[in-house]
Amino acid sequence: MKFYKLVENAVKPGGFWGRLMIRSMNKGHSDLTDWALGFVKIENGFRVLDAGCGGGRTVQKLCGMVGSGRVCGIDYSALCVEKTKKLNHKNVLCDKADVRQASVSDLPFEDNSFDLVTAVETYYFWPDKPGDLKEILRTLKSGGRLLLVFEMLQDPENPEKWKKVEDRLHIKAVSEEEIAGMLRQAGYHHIETHIKDGTSWLCAVASKE
Ligand SMILES: C[S@@+](CC[C@H](N)C(=O)[O-])C[C@H]1O[C@@H](n2cnc3c(N)ncnc32)[C@H](O)[C@@H]1O
Question: Is residue 18 within 6 Å of ligand 1 at its C-beta?
Answer without folding.
Answer: no
